[in-house]
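Exam review. A common question shows you a sequence with its structure tokens and asks you to describe the fold in words. Practice with the pair below. Do the first one on your own.
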Amino acid sequence: MREGLAGCLVGLGLLLATPLDAATTSTFQVSAQIVAGCLVVGGVTSYGVLIFGTQSALSTGILSTSLGGTTVTFQCTPGVTLSMSLDGGQNPASGTRNLKRSDGTQVLAYQLYRDAAYTQALGIGQSVTVSYSDPMAIKLPVYGRTQLSGTLPAGTYSDVVQVTVSW
């Protein structure tokens, strides 16, 4: 019996001593999925300000301005379609945005546009595509215009408009 056990152990030793056919090279898959998107750069809660300036209560004429102040910039994956929509502000009436005097007794109607020529109005809740040439430095194209009547009481007139940006 010892001879049989010894023979098995020698046979097992020969099996362990012979190299196994193990693969020493192989491959593995590497992939990444890049999704289109945008980044809001600036870290501010306000996308900017429209300031018509200081005028005499007797002034007449049209005032124009563009979105300025501390504005945010968007960076988007090239080819992304960026859109924005603006609500009616805090003082809408009959589909018109209004600046309201600080005591709440008087309003001044104003219009918003998406071009400096004031030909493409930004309707309340209307989604419009934001055109850009540099995907790393996109600013929202918002322009404002109002008509002074010369009969407004003196005071500070203001409004807050909510902007929704999507891509």
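Now try the second one, then compare your answer with the model answer below.
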Amino acid sequence: MDDILNSERLHVRHALEAIDSAERPFVKMHGLRNHFVIFDRRIDRRAFRRADIVRICDPRIGVGGDQVLTIEPPSLAGAAAAMRIFNIDGREVSACGNATRCVAHLLMEETGANTLAFETKGGLLKCRRTGAMEVSVALGPIGWNWRDFPLSHEVDVADLPVESGSLRHGMGLWIGNPHAVFFVDSLADINLARDAAPIHDSPLFPEGVNVSVAELVDASTIRLAVWERPGIATQACGTGACVAAFAARRKGLTTSERFTVHLPAGPLSVEIHDTMAVMSGPVAYCCWGVVAAETVYDFD
């Protein structure tokens, strides 16, 4: 009997060791309630599958978040690290302003630096500490070539041929991810899910598009709501704030270079310099933890 019990204990111990070795630590942060689950892959090089990303982002069976971010070894000279960004549907994207600020804060805490650059699929991004829990990032260049998006066919991106409800005469802009920016008289009159979702789903955007709906309050103040890929209303969107400010200038609505952009979760500061945008805002910690192996949290 003792031999059987010892054997069972050995199996249990091996099983627990296997679970422990498969656990992956994360830190969850948010920038104006834009939530990110962040993993460091500079040492632990195990890859995430698309299904893993979906589960982690799902608050019912995972951690819950708007995106999964991974910190990677850099390949570009001068980069402190690299970052990859995955949406809740598991698809990788090139840019996210609030994600950039959160990861920049982590790397600055790690290195003690107040300025650094790190690598993304959208290029090398320069970041600066502007407060104890505040970071600025330079994003761009902002482009308006129809091939950047991609679009299903060539159109005038200064006056997109799509409309829904009060959303008309949108401008297509690229800032590492695609945005369709629409200015309205009153943001309070817009039902984002009703009006923005049909534009996101338009055949003109085969990979979807972030739909930014903006109200210019005065020359340097914008109210903004964003329907983000893959089809959610977000509390804050850093790249959306940047392209809204840029579009206001390009449409001739204002000549200001400095903006306060008010999103549902709070304000971001944006400065426009030619085709570049410098976006500043707060970052915050939510929690730390581990995710277990797929066999532990796989409920499919």
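Model answer, second protein: Residues 7-19, 295-300 have pLDDT under 50 and may be disordered. The first strand starts at residue 24 and ends at 31. Full marks require stating both points clearly.
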